[in-house]
């Protein structure tokens, strides 16, 4: 991957109020998203569900670009890098959907959100300005440790048969997410619009997932309950379209390593939704984790 420096748009050195607010909204939905996948997964095969989501999101993005006049087909030298980014994005979501067949949403989410470590470890090799200082590494470690504390109770119980498969797939998804972020920031994809960057990702995934679905022998159907369709619709319109478009735009304008730290809020939001929607108890561990994540974010975003 070639490093692009001079051609990238002007970037801000720190996260402003708008970026922080948008990041929190995205993280809140991403915490809810795992629950949606599990709900729809009671009726839909995993790769077929992913296909429906990515087809819908790709169509929405194409309509958005037509309305906004954003070119997607012009030659700008980003095709090879875009296909790489799309392949990494597809690998992440294949791991997520398959992993949720073997483990709980909470366990997979904590492994998925090891992604910021890969970003912090690899991105400075391509973008030296993204290098973290020691105090920021402390903040990153504190935030991740706080997430681990929040899930400590689940780790204390006996594992179910095959759960390790979901855990491994969750770790792999976190690695692929981190690599996607690094690829976006360090290749020509960094010079294209947020819409085109996301189109590479959604388009490749929309092409890959149905092939995997057929290879797995999944049955394609449309006669699902309103709850299942509602879960897929939210994943499509808000998750795969609106929130990821916002994320792609922010990656081009704000420091990726500082943005990545906010993603630690997502598994905590997942726990909060569990309390509100599933009646799970609000434990001292969760409150301690919330404090730890907040402290970690402050440390990483110190100027």
From TrEMBL:
The segment(s) forming the EamA domain are: 18-150, 165-301
Q: Which GO terms describe its cellular component?
A: membrane
Q: Which UniProt keywords apply?
A: Membrane, Transmembrane, Transmembrane helix
Its localization reads: Membrane
Q: Which Gene3D superfamilies match?
A: 1.10.3730.20
Source organism's superkingdom? Answer: Bacteria
Where exactly are the transmembrane stretches of this chain? 14-32, 52-69, 81-100, 106-123, 135-156, 168-186, 198-215, 227-247, 259-278, 284-301
Which protein family is it in? Belongs to the EamA transporter family.
Q: What is this protein called?
A: 2A78: carboxylate/amino acid/amine transporter
The organism of origin for this protein: Tepidimonas thermarum
């Amino acid at each position: 991957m070639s490093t692009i420096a001079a051609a990238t748009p002007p970037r801000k050195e720190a996260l402003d109020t708008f970026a922080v607010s948008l990041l929190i909204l995205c993280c809140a939905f991403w915490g809810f998203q795992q629950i949606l996948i599990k709900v729809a997964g009671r009726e839909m095969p995993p790769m077929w569900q992913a296909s429906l989501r990515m087809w819908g999101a790709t169509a929405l993005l194409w309509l958005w670009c037509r309305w906004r006049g954003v070119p997607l087909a012009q030659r700008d030298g980003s095709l090879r890098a875009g296909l790489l980014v799309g392949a990494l994005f597809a690998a992440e979501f294949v791991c997520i959907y398959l992993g949720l067949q073997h483990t709980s949403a909470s366990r997979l989410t904590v492994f998925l959100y090891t992604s910021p470590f890969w970003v912090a470890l690899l991105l400075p090799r391509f973008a030296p300005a993204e290098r973290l200082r020691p105090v920021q590494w402390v903040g990153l470690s504190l935030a991740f440790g706080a997430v681990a504390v929040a899930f400590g109770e689940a780790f204390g119980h006996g594992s179910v048969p095959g759960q390790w498969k979901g855990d491994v797939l969750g770790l792999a998804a976190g690695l692929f997410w981190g690599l996607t972020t690094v690829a976006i920031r360090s290749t020509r994809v960094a010079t294209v619009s947020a819409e085109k960057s996301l189109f590479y990702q959604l388009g490749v995934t929309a092409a890959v997932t149905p092939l995997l679905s057929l290879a797995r022998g999944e049955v394609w159907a449309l006669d699902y309950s309103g709850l299942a369709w509602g879960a897929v619709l939210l994943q499509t319109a808000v998750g795969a379209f609106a929130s990821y478009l916002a994320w792609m735009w922010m990656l081009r304008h704000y420091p990726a390593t500082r943005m990545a730290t906010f993603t630690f809020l997502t598994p905590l939001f997942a726990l909060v939704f569990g309390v509100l929607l599933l009646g799970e108890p609000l434990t001292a561990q969760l409150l301690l984790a919330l404090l730890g994540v907040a402290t970690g974010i402050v440390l990483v975003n110190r100027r």
